[in-house]
Write a structure and sequence with these properties.
Elements (H helix, E strand, L loop, with lengths): L1 E8 L2 E8 L2 H9 L3 E2 L2 E2 L13 E7 L3 E4 L21 E5 L22 H8 L14 H7 L6 E6 L9 H4 L4 H26 L1 E6 L3 H8 L7 E3 L15 E2 L2
Parallel strand pairs: 7-8, 7-9, 9-10
Antiparallel strand pairs: 1-2, 3-4, 5-6, 5-8, 10-11
Protein name: Uracil-DNA glycosylase-like domain-containing protein
Length: 245
């Protein structure tokens, strides 16, 4: 079954479509989220984007250091990304879930506010991770021989909530993936533009496996490390990183 919704592109609303199975459709219908095969919500307008942030700094002799202040209503010290940023390290997350929005009014906060953010914080470097056998972001960066101070940015290829988790109250991966792909098809150029502006030395791709290749195909001129989604770091650090370049 195909559901219609709208996304704001260049200040105009454009129709997009995504597929759901019969059980997913029934769940959306039961929660009054669809009407006549159309999503009964306006979620994909500019004011609903979760903006990319500058959360950490990598200092080779010290590790991964938190910013001292925040520009957002975030649980972490997140800064706005300046237009003249360079030599960045980008951690790709995929798309925001329910923790990245205020509960009562669906106002965007910042990336990785829940369990994902806590896992990133725990496994950012050797100072934060107490278990030496688990890999950290610092370990990945040392292996790439980055020797200069670099800002670490948290970036969602799709800055909208593809999971609909604030409304379904759960994560349905199939629904999330189908809607994510429809959104990304329209947002691909915007994503590439953001990556170009951030001038990365390295991209750490933490998207889930079903969506990794779609993202990597857009950024294949960059140095990339594939890692599990940061939510999964909670269960044993950064396992089996794959260095693509």
């Amino acid at each position: 079954m195909t559901i219609k919704t709208y996304i704001e592109i260049n200040n105009k609303m454009k129709e997009i479509f995504f597929d759901v199975n019969s059980q997913e459709y029934k769940e959306l219908l039961d929660k009054n989220l669809v009407k006549k095969n159309e999503l009964n919500l306006k979620l994909f307008t500019k004011d609903k984007k979760v903006q990319d942030v500058w959360r950490y700094n990598y200092i080779p002799e010290k590790g991964v250091i938190n910013n001292k202040t925040s520009d957002f209503n975030s649980k972490f010290n997140d800064k706005k990304i300046p237009l003249d940023i360079k030599n960045s390290i980008i951690l790709l997350l995929e798309s925001p879930h329910k923790d990245e929005y205020q509960k009562n009014n669906f106002i965007p906060i910042a990336p990785a506010q829940g369990a994902t953010g806590r896992a990133i914080e725990k496994f950012k470097d050797r100072n934060s991770s107490k278990t030496l056998k688990y890999l950290t972001i610092e370990d990945l960066l040392k292996k790439t021989n980055i020797i200069e101070k670099s800002p670490i940015l948290l970036v969602n290829p799709v800055q909208y909530q593809a999971s609909l988790g604030s409304f379904t109250k759960k994560l349905n991966k199939n629904l999330r993936n189908n809607l994510w792909k429809s959104l990304f098809n329209e947002l691909k150029n915007d994503f590439i533009s953001r990556i170009t502006i951030y001038k990365p030395l390295l991209i750490i791709n933490g998207c889930t496996n079903d969506l990794k290749d779609e993202v990597n195909n857009c950024i294949n001129t960059n140095k990339i490390i594939n890692v599990p989604h940061p939510y999964n770091w909670s269960f044993g650090g950064i396992r089996n990183p794959i260095y693509l370049k």
